[in-house]
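User: Quick sanity check before I run a bigger batch. Here is a single chain. Can you write out its predicted 3D structure?
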Amino acid sequence: MKNIATQLLKIGAVFLRPEQPFTWASGIKSPIYCDNRLILSSPEAREIVEKSLAESVTSHFPECEMLMGTSTAGIAHAAITATQLGLPMGYVRSSAKDHGRTNRIEGRMDAGTKVVVIEDLISTGGSCLEVVDALREANGEVLGVVSIFTYGMAAATQKFENTHTVNFSLTHLDELVEVAVNENYITEKQRMAILHFRDNPADESWLDMLK
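Assistant: Done. Predicted structure follows.
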């Protein structure tokens, strides 16, 4: 949705910096960085995003019985959306606790519960699908994932297909950079470079497109 992309740009949740690329943990240089935690600090954007998440859950997964947030960025969004929908909510840790009940899944999820995962951002898809795997191993029935933003990388798309997991994102990179050009955040040349990065993340040839 273009209104979601507009809100992310407006509050600075998405940083577009082709000439001064960010370095990911993998060492990949990226012209874009997304921090959807900033949505929580903006009441206007938060209301729009959480309402859209709720609408996406009810539209795509009407049989949903519980929401599960990804740790840590998806937790707050899952909690707010679950409150709007009147659904139970929990979250999945990146790894099990080493004390207490050693839980990885927090919240009561009975076997067979129909679950939707709430994720803030999908890049390569690995961390989100680890959550899906943990829920399935605990006998939860994962209907799918609803996320705020996806880069739309081929690697992520393939991983979701391989695990028979569907994802619906409120907005995506193509839409966001289109809005960014129209709103004069970036130039058309920068837009093309960012999309080239998305399609070739390990290849720094997109930097040559800016010269």
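Residues 107 and 137 are 15 Å apart (CA to CA).

User: Great, the batch can go ahead then.
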